[in-house]
Specification:
Layout (H helix, E strand, L loop, with lengths): L2 H7 L2 E5 L2 E6 L2 E3 L9 E2 L2 E4 L8 E5 L4 E4 L3 E3 L16 E5 L1 E2 L8 E4 L5 E2 L3 E6 L4 E3 L3 E3 L12 E3 L15 E4 L8 E6 L5 E3 L3 E3 L12 E3 L7 H7 L24 E2 L5 E9 L6 H19 L6 E7 L3 E5 L1 H5 L5 H10 L12 H24 L2 E9 L10 H12 L18 E7 L6 H4 L11 E3 L6 H4 L4 E2 L20 H8 L3 E8 L2 E9 L4 E4 L13 E4 L7 E9 L22 E5 L18 H6 L9 H8 L4 E10 L2 E10 L4 H5 L5 H4 L4 E4 L18 E6 L2 E11 L18 E5 L4 H8 L18
Parallel strand pairs: 4-9, 22-29, 23-24, 23-26, 26-27, 27-28
Antiparallel strand pairs: 1-2, 2-3, 5-6, 6-8, 7-9, 10-12, 11-13, 13-15, 14-16, 17-18, 18-20, 19-21, 24-25, 30-31, 30-33, 31-32, 32-35, 33-34, 34-35, 36-37, 38-41, 39-40, 40-41
Helix pairs in contact: 3-5, 6-7
Length: 771
């Protein structure tokens, strides 16, 4: 109930003790005093000033947390819950980590009563015991220990390794053979368990679940930890990663392949206890995740709701299934959602899960039970868990499990989980100043990795979602790249992952050297300009610089220049250098190692580019790709230039349709020199384009679609040399650049890259081309 609404129903207004009081319906509301609420060493904010329902939220510098309260709420009677007292001043307290002295067959040094942020510990095993884990650990600002759990064990004759005991925990169970169990609990009443309370030794030598940890109320997961642990359960797209390091951890990450039916349900808490800034950060994280998934060929159905006492359905999953909404509109709806004006007093978390359950039931009704078996469901909820309406949400979660699991029983001793458990994952992101962990932990579910996260600050979470996708199974997909991450300090690493397809080409002969750019279009081929490989050049004269971890400089096996390229073809028509069909392909002696830092760009008229553009089936022609990529008369494009930052991105607009003629007229003898095979950029019309420099020749002119990049042209020639030292140089009014349109030379690309009559490389799959 909002305060404005209460004002409308009041029967009278009275004054008491000089304070405005609202009276009526048997209750009195008034403002809270701003007395004794200050915090030593920190600060506080008020969500609604001193009005009833306002949250007073404390904050402290890194490595400290508010004590004794994390926040207070102004109650109807004009008092703060857990009222501040003069004798117990609010202050910022040094972060404490759980007691690491849990080794049964080893020792911890130094031995302290309590361990605070910055404290270092070292570990040693007694004679006869082997050590695994981290010898040295540091108490971190988020209330966790660095490194891995130290373990002292003999591990002789056991099927599984000793799973260890996390800091602050106790363990029952010391036999580690097949089907043996270990159970964990946290010591004291200030710690709670996150992770698997019970783990079972499996026949494959691995433990079920994930290693648990003991958290304080001030413990939180960093965005990097979330990105490493966050996962999903999608058939053929999600697998359990091999254990890392000490075989005690089992991680799950989102693996995207080309097939799969996936339904994603997202809920964001907008109740009074969640600040507007936290809601905006959650929205950014949701959009970042959706965009990342959209860069692959999986096309999920989305349900997105915002909730407090009521549900606001912003994106409807049934509209997705009926084709009534496209992804761009869904993202726009999320971005435009505002908390303002909505009743945010009260939280009905149960209604969230009931709404998702209802949507699942309708989907099941529509697709029928047999098809519903192949649907994967991922639920992602951002909330502090402070539900006070609608009742406990746990029964609704159990109903969701019942529907997805289809009541399949577990009868065999070997099967430790429901055989359909991989079809459902529920992830809970705890946000807000106070998180009700004990209410949220029972709601998470799913096989494998961590499904509950405590977020101290989610403002940068969208940047880390780039890391949750394991691209190891889709390394061959063209055009994948990482978005800019401001936290990455290594400039070269940033650029390589942002533009993983770029290459530097060097031609050395007769004591002269020249440089060009190129783009990796498959594991074995670099696309560049034909004029970069002048007459007389041999493969031995060419090297390609592209660092795939096995050495930067790559030798060249062969190269192929477009058969129609002839730089002197129009000399008789007063065109000294004619660059039509200025395109070539360089074949490397050995294919590069594809990774997140080195991977091919998409090129027109291939089936992979169809996938990148989310065009379904072979019926989509090359013309359809061209319509999508060149849909405007001024099409924004980019190409790269070599700089001290390795490379930087230049912005240009291709002038198409009615704008083309005015663009190309600035070339000398343009009616001969500029054929239909060229795109024209440059000038000041509507945008001051960057201009190409000599070293930019052969580089990719590209267009981005979220996390996919499609090359549409090759940098060829220009009317003016405005570059003294290269770099980000801008056009003047008459400078123009011309780039070979790859759609016009697709038959040449197909003949070389799509050649199925050879065994040197895996050919690309091209669409049917005209002519």
């Amino acid at each position: 109930m909002s305060r404005a609404w209460v004002r409308r129903i009041q029967s009278k207004r009275v004054e008491e003790s000089g304070v405005e009081v609202l009276a009526g319906a048997g209750e009195i509301w008034c403002d809270c005093p701003e007395v004794n609420v200050q915090i030593t060493g920190g600060s506080y904010t008020l969500t609604k000033q001193l009005e009833t329902g306002s949250n007073l939220i404390y904050s402290c510098p890194e490595g400290y947390y508010p004590y004794p309260e994390l926040k207070r709420v102004c109650q109807r009677g004009g008092t703060w819950d857990r009222a501040p007292r003069k004798m117990s001043n609010q202050r910022c307290r040094l972060v404490e980590c759980p007691d690491p002295a849990v080794l049964k067959e080893g020792s911890v040094s130094p031995s302290e009563e309590r361990y605070y942020v910055g404290n270092e510990t070292t570990y040693d095993c007694y004679s006869g015991y082997a050590f695994r884990g981290s010898y040295r650990r540091v108490c971190l600002p988020n209330g966790k220990w660095s490194g891995n759990t130290p373990i002292c064990s003999r591990d002789s004759g056991n099927n599984c390794h000793d799973p260890g005991i996390p800091a602050g925990a106790s363990r029952s169970g010391n036999i580690f053979d097949i089907d043996d169990k270990v159970t964990y609990s946290c010591d004291g009443n200030q710690l709670f368990l996150v992770g698997s309370k019970e783990r079972v030794c499996q026949e494959n030598g691995h433990w079920t679940g994930i290693e648990p940890a003991c958290y304080y109320k001030h413990t939180f997961d960093t965005p990097l930890e979330v990105s490493q642990a966050f996962g999903s359960a999608i058939k053929e797209t999600l697998t359990t990663s091999q254990p890392i390091g000490d075989d005690t951890q089992e991680g799950r990450i989102l693996r995207i392949s080309k097939n799969g039916t996936l339904n994603i349900y997202i809920a964001v808490d907008i109740s009074e206890s969640i600040t507007e800034e936290e809601v905006d950060s959650a929205k950014d994280a949701v959009i970042a995740l959706i965009k990342k998934i959209a860069s692959f060929t999986v096309t999920p159905n989305y349900e997105v709701v915002f909730f407090s006492s009521e549900i606001t359905e912003v994106v409807k999953i049934l509209d997705f299934m009926e084709g009534k909404i496209v992804l761009e509109k869904a993202v726009e709806a999320i971005r435009e959602f505002k908390k303002e004006g909505l009743d945010s007093i009260g939280t009905n978390l149960k209604q969230v899960f009931e709404t998702f359950l209802e949507r699942m039931a309708i989907i099941k009704e529509r697709v029928k039970e047999e098809a519903f078996k192949d649907h994967r469901h991922v639920l992602i909820v951002f909330t502090d868990g402070a539900y006070n309406m609608g009742g406990v949400p746990t029964p609704s979660v159990e109903q969701i499990k019942k529907m997805v699991y289809m009541n399949q029983a577990v009868d065999t001793a070997e099967q430790k989980t429901n055989p359909r458990e991989e079809y459902l994952d529920i992830y809970i992101f705890g946000i807000g100043a106070v998180i009700f962990d004990e209410d949220l932990l029972p709601l998470r579910t799913g096989t494998g990795g961590q499904h509950f996260f405590r977020m101290d600050d989610i403002k940068n979470l969208q940047h880390t979602f780039d890391s949750i996708i394991d691209e190891s199974e889709v390394l061959g997909l063209c055009g994948l790249h990482m978005a800019f991450d401001p936290k990455m300090k290594d400039r070269k690493e940033v650029k390589r992952k942002m533009y993983p397809w770029f290459a530097f080409i060097k031609i050395t002969r007769e004591n002269t050297a020249s440089n060009c750019m190129g783009s990796l279009v498959s594991g074995e081929f670099i696309l560049t300009a034909a004029h970069c490989l002048p007459f007389g050049v041999t493969p031995n004269d060419i090297t390609v610089d592209i660092d795939d971890g096995l050495g930067k400089v790559k030798r060249v096996k062969n190269f192929f220049v477009h058969p129609n390229y002839n730089i002197s073809a129009k000399v008789g028509q007063k065109v000294e250098e004619f660059y039509d069909y200025d395109v070539a392909l360089i074949q490397l002696e050995e294919g590069v190692v594809i990774s997140k830092s080195v991977r091919p760009i998409c090129i027109p008229c291939t089936k992979e580019t169809n996938d990148a553009l989310q065009l379904v089936g072979d019926s989509n022609s090359c013309d359809r790709q061209e319509e999508i990529l060149f849909k405007d008369s001024r099409e924004g494009l980019n190409f790269l230039t070599k700089t001290e930052n390795m490379v930087d991105e230049k912005d240009v607009y291709a002038k198409l349709g009615p704008n083309r003629e005015d663009c190309i007229k600035h070339a000398v003898n343009s009616n001969v020199a500029v054929t239909d095979n060229f795109l024209c950029t440059g000038g000041l019309d509507g945008h001051r384009d960057h201009i190409a420099c000599k070293g930019d020749s052969g580089g990719a002119v590209f267009k981005n679609f979220e996390h996919r990049t499609i090359q549409v042209a090759v940098v060829s020639w220009g009317t003016k040399d405005l570059c003294s030292g290269g770099g980000l140089v801008e056009s003047d009014a008459t400078s123009r650049d011309f780039h070979i349109n790859l759609f016009k030379v697709a038959p040449f690309l197909k003949k070389v890259l799509g050649n199925e009559d050879q065994f040197d490389f895996v050919p690309l799959k091209f669409l049917d081309l005209k002519g």
